[in-house]
Amino acid sequence: MLMSNTARAAKLHYMANSFRVLAPGDHVVCAVSGERIPLDRLRYWSAERQEPYAGAEQVAQALHGK
Length: 66
Hints:
Blueprint: E1 11-14, E2 19-23, E3 27-29, E4 36-38, E5 44-46, E6 51-53, H1 56-64
Antiparallel strand pairs: 1-2, 3-4, 5-6
Pfam families: DUF2093
Protein name: DUF2093 domain-containing protein
InterPro entries: DUF2093
């Protein structure tokens, strides 16, 4: 039986300008807010921290501890 990627969190390796899928899924979870981010809408991440972020505000919170 094939498993669907729907509702499964992907595991990614974040690089400077892209990411590589290590385990398939349809979303990742924001490291700050816990919000689900569909892979086709993922625009913010930290290669250094290996974390995804839902938006610029979450990036600022992660980097500045706010």
